Amino acid sequence: MEPGPPGSSGPAEPGPCLSGQRGADHAASASLQSAARTESGRHSLAVAAVLPAGGCGERMGVPTPKQFCPILERPLISYTLQALERVCWIKDIVVAVTGENMEVMKSIIQKYQHERISLVEAGVTRHRSIFSGLKALAEDQLNSKLSKPEVVIIHDAVRPFVEEDVLLKVVTAAKEHGAAGAIRPLVSTVISPSADGCLDHSLERARHRASEMPQAFLFDVIYEAYQQMTYKRITQRFTTNSPATIVEVRKQ
């Protein structure tokens, strides 16, 4: 789904308390309200978020992982957490970080007074980190403050400019279809090269879209998909970091 127009108002809560939305936002909130109704009454949709943050900054070519790079003297990941914390209907936020950066992440949470944050150890790949976050939400552990959500959002730790209306739309679509994600029109020309590196053909931009974050899933759909992938397949097979790929492969 493509992001809505800038400046659209965001809801206070996904579920029956949504009101006052216009146009597509109104239709989305009404759909979510309907889905939230039960015979015994109404309830808010349980939503959590998972942020894989175990990258080492290799592609960026800097010694500090980009999620910890300072922007105006504040780590980038802190801005992303702040953006998600402003969305009051996201109940839990799970961040997957490497063991060596666990104390760094704890100090960021304390310094900037982040709330609703739980930490898990990241895996050797992005997919393994996401799976670690999902397992933390799925398992009923003693003294754990986490609870299994109905829908889970997966977002990049280094993308703080995420709008609440986009989050609402992907959650609403995931509730209806099982999985959803933000997309945008292609800007650059995408080509398919031949084996010798020459141009084979160009893709028609109007027929394709670029996949973006955030993505949202019914929790059982994405968790079961990751469970069915072996360690080797999750670690080595996938050339894309998109969790939607895991669901796609599961269906094949």
Strand content: 15-25%
Report the span from N to C terminus.
Answer: 22 Å
Shape: globular
Quote the CATH topology: Spore Coat Polysaccharide Biosynthesis Protein SpsA, Chain A
Subunit arrangement of the protein: single chain
Individual helix count: 8
Chain-averaged pLDDT: 81
Helix proportion: 25-40%
Main sheet makeup: 6 strands, mixed
- What's the CATH class, please? Alpha Beta
The total beta strand count reads 12
Number of domains: 1
Question: What is the SS-derived class?
Answer: alpha/beta
Note poorly predicted spans: 4-24, 33-42
Which architecture name does CATH use? Alpha-Beta Complex
Order of helices and strands: HEEEEEHEHEHEHEEEEHHH
Radius of gyration from CA coordinates = 19 Å
Strand order of the largest sheet: 7-6-3-8-12-9
Main location: cytoplasm
GO molecular function: D-ribitol-5-phosphate cytidylyltransferase activity
Enzyme class: transferase
Protein name: D-ribitol-5-phosphate cytidylyltransferase
